[in-house]
Amino acid sequence: MRASRFTAALAAVTIAATGLTACSNESGSDTNANGADGENVTVRIGTTDADQQAWSVFSDLAAEEGITLDIVQFSDYPPVNEALAQGELDLNKFQHILYLAKYNASSGNDLKVVGSTEIYPLALFWKDHDSLDGIDGEEVAIPNDDSNQGRAINVLVQAGLVTLKDGADELAPTPADIDTDASKVSVVPVDASQTPSAYKEGRPAIINNSWLDRAGIEPTEAIFQDDPGSAQGEPYINVFASRAEDIDNPTYVRLAELWHDPKVTEAVQQDSRGTAVKVERPANELNDILERLEQNEK
Asked: How far apart, in Å, are the Cα atoms of 172 and each of 184, 201, 285, 295?
């Protein structure tokens, strides 16, 4: 039997319906801070993808070091950071740095990064095409949400298909920042869930990983993707987050390290169908990126 307990999706609904309550000392950060001394401790982690194989492998590795993972599944993104901020969780792992920065800036809370996990390249797909040849003049469907629209436009910038106006926000451009006369394609923002439909209708589309899987589109069919190692990619590094006072908690830091164990990495690759790119950056660098992004949001 695994040491971790996977909480059903109903738990997320229950939390949302009944309100959040603070963790008791048995599962709170005071107890978990002693994990480095060899005591068996429980760490409560919120996520939106608890069914993935990587969590099972990760839980088993943590158990070998006396750390029991209580993994709480959420059905949507917004409640996960709020649950952490209010003490219902010890850590969460579901978001990239930009999403966390937007949350902090809008909520006034101060969640921090404990460690990095992966980055997932964002790609351009065009049915029955294997290159950018012939794409000039096409309308490209892009996701219209705050977390992906700017990045999608930058995918087209990196592909040489879109030119931004002078003075545009290079980190998070909007359609209004596009110099249409100097660009080779135009963009049509749509709900992210509709990008696979645009692709299947024969239009070029930028589709993020979660919708690729649901639509049965192979990542290898991409005709272009952004560079995860570029400065433009830094906001999209996925992370473990904690409350500010817990970023040096030795148990949490150790868990962030364990995520990079080769067994977890192999499982992540299987879950992502080979698209995930491992990122190992010091926490101080990640929090510097977070701070810069928060300043941009204010």
From this structure: 20, 28, 20, 13
